[in-house]
Amino acid sequence: MGPLPAAARVYIACAVLAAAVCAVPLARSAPEVPWGELVLLAGVCAVCERLPRRPLTLPVLLAAAVLLPPAAAGLAAVPGGLAGRVGRRPVAVRRLWHAAQLSLATGAASYVYGLGGPRPVTAPAFPRALGPALAAALVLALVLAVLEGGVLVTAEGRSPRTAWRDALPGALVPPLAQGPTGLLVAVVWHSPYGPPAALLVLLPMALSSWVLDRCRRERAAHRATVRALVQAVDLKDAYTRGHSERVGRASVLIARELGMRGERLEALRFAGTLHDVGKIGVPTRVLRKNGPLTPEERRLIELHPEYGHEMVRGIGFLDEARDAILHHHERLDGTGYPYGLTGHQIPEAARVVAVADAFDAMTSTRSYSRARPVPAALAELHRCAGSHFDPRMVAALTRALDRYGWHPAVPASRNVPLDQCPARTAAGGGA
User: Fold this and answer.
1) What is the chain's percent helix, strand, coil content, to nearest 5?
2) How many CB atoms lie within 10 A of CB 200?
3) What are residue 387's phi and psi, to 5 degrees?
4) CA-CA distance, 286 to 358, in Å (whole number)?
């Protein structure tokens, strides 16, 4: 990263100066300041800032805002800001900025809490202190977001509207969850058990944050795996580029209408997105052939569900998706492939993906067929419901499209006249 713009440096200098001015009252009231609490909270804040994703910084700052007067609370936040992780240059300027930001926000929160909250806060006073503590938490988060938006405006040239629109909404949620935790730390701090017990209050939050972070990382890894597989298919079969994502989206629309939620919904998204992953095992010359397929070439393409099933066999989070990948070309009347299953022998996920696949195939322009309008595609699905497709899935897709609409695919082109390429499939989706 290049040097910060002059406007950003002036803005940061003003923030640092403001934080310093807010600490001046400490010099006049030094004998009254609880320096032991200040130093201990400052040390804990510095440690929290070194943790990945900083899950405990906000509750510790809120505890400081409840326990200390504004000037002392602002000073307690400074070591954390200076010790925090900085990923980009200039490191020194960013650390000064972060320290000033935390100091101003914590001082403002302490001031708001002091308007109605008791100091020191004890267990009997907990209910009366809850409102002021939540207000202080909200002010802390808002000040952090407003200051951060100012940096985006001066350093990155964003418009004020864009900068604060991105920063403010996400700042309102953490205080509601972490405000009571900060207050609880403050209550236990002045209990007979003292500061060590107060710091133990943070342990469950640290563990839960670690678990959530692991879950987020795992989900991100899942999505990266799926994207890599889909990109491999798209490189082999340019005609269907984007088809996988659209089938995943249509599968989710159907699944929601059927009442599926949570992990089941995510499994259907993966199933729809990866339904054609087995095409990686089909010869490229067959996938990209412009003319009609020979019986032998069609047999090769009809192997792609089994190839896909084998490819994802060892990927644990794709358990349900694996059934859909294997059976999405089965038909209710038993004329599908690879096993000729009938009715409810076909897994539910496969019946969902079959309808989503056929719908997108009909509403997408390919070398061998023009895109049909959405009403015409739905009419064809209803005509084939009961023989090819599960009527429940067709009805669910129809309801979802009435509610949300559909954005047809951009035509894929390889400069082949459409009227010279015979259709490869009936209303059964892409091969």
Assistant:
1) 70, 0, 30
2) 12
3) -110, -55
4) 20
Which of these, 423, 230, 241, lies nearest to 431 by C-alpha position?
423
CA dihedral 359, 360, 366, 369 (to 10 degrees): 10
| pLDDT one-digit tens code per residue, 344-380 | 999 999 999 999 999 998 998 766 667 889 999 999 9
Which residues in the chain land under pLDDT 70? 1-2, 166-167, 169-171, 238-241, 366-369, 408-431
**d(C-alpha 211, C-alpha 199), whole Å:** 19
Tell me how crowded residue 395 is: count the other CB atoms within 10 A of its CB. Answer: 17
Q: What is the DSSP string of 15-65?
A: HHHHHHHHTTHHHHSGGGS-HHHHHHHHHHHHHHHHSTT-TTHHHHHHHHH
pLDDT value, residue 1: 41
Which pair of tokens denotes residue 221? 């890894």
Token pair 């989900």 in the structure block, residue: 219
Cβ–Cβ under 8 Å, residues 345 and 331: no
Report the chain's terminal Cα–Cα distance, integer Å: 48
Residue 284 region, left (φ>0) first, then alpha (ψ -120 to 50), else beta? alpha
- Letter for the amino acid at 268? L
Give the phi and the psi of residue 366 in degrees, each rounded to 5. -125, 180
Q: Which residues pair with 333 in a beta bridge?
A: 342
Tokens of 321: 């998706």
How far is the C-alpha of 243 from the C-alpha of 117, rounded, in Å? Answer: 58
User: Which among 133, 69, 62, 130 has a CA at the least distance from the CA of 102?
Assistant: 62
pLDDT value at residue 86: 78
Distance CA 273, CA 230 (A): 7
CA distance 175 to 65: 13
Q: Name the DSSP letter for residue 264.
A: H
User: Cβ distance 49 to 80 under 8 Å?
Assistant: yes
> Quick one: pLDDT at residue 409?
55
Residues 6+ apart with CB under 8 A from 383: 427
For 68, half-sphere exposure in the C-beta direction (CA atoms, 13 angstrom radius) is 33
Any alpha helices (H) in 84-201, and if so which ranges?
91-114, 126-156, 160-171, 173-189, 194-200
Distance between CA atoms of 279 and 107, rounded to whole angstroms? 60
Six-digit token pair at 202? 């943070």
